[in-house]
Design a protein that fits this description.
heterodimer, A: about 400 residues, alpha+beta, 2 domains, six-stranded mixed β-barrel, two-stranded antiparallel sheet, 12 strands, B: about 240 residues, alpha/beta, Rossmann fold, four-stranded antiparallel beta sheet, 10 strands
């Protein structure tokens, strides 16, 4: 008996038991669909992350306090407070020839109030270099300057939405808002910028760095330095210079003892890619467990089918089927069941992933719809493989039945 | 024309073991069946006639002794060789028909051909169905047929590989006397055309349609005689 005729036969048998066949493949459908959806959503989320990061520009160097591996995140990214980075470091970096602008950052979250309005806002203390580093423009008013910073001026620049939330249609310029009981005069509003690196830039409230450090936070360290390099080609050189300079300033001789992490934005992308890939495959692995559960379901049903078709097996043996013939018949049947489930699962998975991409794009995320051919092939072959693996035992059992016993079975 | 020996049993026995208890079903049987014979095997329940038929038809193996089929000792044949023998050399007719449900008459008859790579399966199956007078039922499902028709499909299935011998295990047991007579008529006709027929039955009238009757009791042969006056199945099976 050829594989093809086994295949035809299995279609007939499965067609004759439509309801049961459907229930059998259900587990496989869900498993394969889950794997496809997770892979696709993972790739979509990855594209979203990359689009976000690269929207910051590729000629930036970021410096965070605390040591990190080449590609791992530094401790400060996990919320650990490290105080090793100072504003004086940023001032020193500004002297590197290839670096055109430097900004230092501190950050806090508190309630901002104006008259009866109040919002929970993230306030960012930055040096005036921020305007050049992040290439922002103001829709009205001015950004603060060096003199404002060094004099701890009680002034603020609002993000587009922060201004809207607090002042509505009114002009915020010249008004005083309060954060932590400190009055800050609004001197400017930033143009609408949207979401960059997962932070809605329009909800931020900007203060001079020293004002934020001394008056609001009571700290003397900074949480990040960003430096802009003259062009992409000079980024590696500038990065090396910056590292050397910081080591000198911090009295570090062994690079393994760095108390800071300096990265180019491109390098950060690589690190993110590794992390998100690991996450994606981890989730797909979890989804794959459901495939195993589905496979066990198939084994169960196949065992029932072997019992139910005992007489048929006996008859087939009586008219000349060898053990191999019978085994092949049941294996092909299991493979056809799982393959059908796999194909249905792929269709559902692709449709669902497409739907997620459409919704995400509708919500103005830069979400790519990614379903790769390998992931489809993987879905097909895994589902087929599961049929063969979990069909093996029932098929073996069917094949090894004694013809007399099988024929006598009622 | 001297006939060749088709089946030769030499001192065969069959024991079954159940939880360590050995039951002897067949005790050292010896007999021969020649090509073209029509043999009925008779005996009460538990006499071992079914076990004997299973051994003769390669569905079961002997516990001791030798079984020669076409002068070949089949005792040591492996699964593949036995399957090939069942496929090519013998045909089965069962009491309970054993047709595949939800399968057409034609495909039921094609079934044995599926296992030997025969060409022109459809033509061969149609010819076999014509021989049993069912050419008008080719595309019926097996469960749409009457009992007599089902058994005739089973005979067509047994014939389709042109076997040396047809085993019929109580072929009329589930049929009314008219359908039973029709089935027996076909078997008699096949025998007249040269096929060896081995029939297992417990009805004397049915057995009398054969030419020779082997009677078993408690796993031993109690008589092995030619039939003096054969039943003419055309007159029906009940006296």
């Amino acid at each position: 008996m050829t594989v093809f005729s086994s295949f035809k036969l299995s279609l007939t048998t499965l067609g004759a038991n439509k309801k049961r066949s459907f229930l059998t493949i259900f587990g496989i459908v869900i498993g394969v669909a889950a794997v496809i959806i997770i892979m696709s959503v993972g790739a979509g989320a990855q594209s979203l992350i990359f689009n976000q990061i690269s929207s910051q520009g590729s000629n930036l160097i970021g410096i965070l306090p605390g040591y990190s591996d080449e590609n791992g995140p530094p401790a400060s990214a996990m919320g650990v407070v490290v105080t090793s980075l100072k504003e004086s470091d940023a001032e020193a970096l500004a002297k590197i020839k290839e670096i055109t602008a430097v900004a230092s950052y501190v950050r806090g979250v508190d309630t901002a109030k104006w008259q009866n309005q109040s919002i929970d806002a993230t306030f960012v203390g930055v040096t005036p270099g921020y305007v050049d580093v992040e290439e922002i423009a103001l829709s009205s008013g001015n950004f603060f300057n060096e003199a404002d910073n060094s004099s701890l001026a009680r002034i603020t620049v609002l993000g587009f939405e922060a201004a809207k939330d607090l002042f509505g249609e009114q002009n915020p310029l010249g008004e005083d808002i309060k954060i932590k009981g400190i009055s800050l005069k609004v001197i400017g509003v930033v143009e609408k910028r949207g979401v960059v690196a997962f932070q809605n830039q329009d909800e931020l409230i900007f203060l001079p760095l020293l004002t934020a450090q001394k008056l609001l936070l009571g700290i003397n360290y900074i949480s990040m330095i960003r430096a802009k390099v003259i062009n992409d080609a000079e980024v590696p050189f500038a990065l090396d210079q910056a590292k050397q300079m910081l080591r000198e300033r911090h009295d570090i001789t062994n690079p393994d003892e760095d108390d800071f992490s300096a990265r180019a934005s491109a390098q950060a992308l690589d690190a993110l890619k590794q992390i998100t890939n690991a996450l994606k495959f981890f989730l797909a692995g979890i989804a794959a467990i459901s495939l195993i559960v589905g496979g066990i379901g198939i084994m169960n049903i196949m065992l029932v089918a072997v019992n139910e078709r005992m007489k048929e097996i006996g008859l087939r043996k009586a008219v000349g089927a060898t053990e191999k013939n019978i085994q092949q018949q049941f294996l092909v049947e299991a493979a056809v069941v799982t393959l059908t489930g796999g194909v249905i699962g792929i269709i559902i998975g692709v449709l669902f992933s497409g739907l997620i991409a459409i919704v995400a794009n509708y919500l103005e995320y830069q979400w790519d719809f990614v379903v790769t051919v390998p992931s489809i092939l993987l879905g097909v072959s895994i589902s087929c493989l599961i049929g063969v693996i979990f069909g093996w035992y029932p098929a073996k059992r069917a094949a090894s039945l004694e013809p007399v016993e099988a024929l006598r079975h009622e | 024309m001297p006939r060749e020996t088709l089946i030769k049993l030499q001192d065969i026995c069959r024991d079954f073991e159940n939880d360590g208890v050995v039951t002897k079903v067949l005790h050292h049987l010896n007999f021969e069946i020649k090509n073209g014979e029509f043999v009925a095997i008779m005996g009460p329940s538990g006499s071992g006639k079914s076990t004997l038929m299973h051994i003769l038809s390669f569905l079961d193996r002997v516990s001791c002794g030798q079984y020669y089929f076409n002068s070949e000792d089949t005792s040591e044949f492996n699964d593949d060789k036995l399957a090939a023998l069942r496929n090519k050399k013998i045909g089965f007719v069962f009491q309970s028909f054993n047709l595949l449900p939800r399968t057409t008459v034609l495909n039921n008859v094609i079934l044995p051909l599926e296992y030997n790579g025969a060409k022109d399966k459809k033509t061969a199956a149609e010819a076999a169905l014509k021989a049993v007078g069912l050419e008008h039922r080719l595309n019926y499902f097996s469960n749409q047929l009457s009992g007599g028709e089902k058994q005739r499909v089973a005979i067509a299935r047994a014939l389709v590989n042109n076997p040396d011998v047809i085993f019929a295990d109580e072929p009329t047991g589930n049929l009314d006397s008219k359908s039973g007579a029709q089935v027996m008529e076909i078997l008699v006709k096949l025998n007249e055309e040269g096929k060896t027929i081995i029939l297992v039955t417990h009805e004397q009238y049915t057995a009398n349609a054969a030419k020779r009757i082997i009677k078993l009791k408690d796993g031993e042969i109690v008589s092995d005689e030619m039939v003096a006056e054969r039943t003419d199945v055309k007159n029906g099976l009940v006296k």
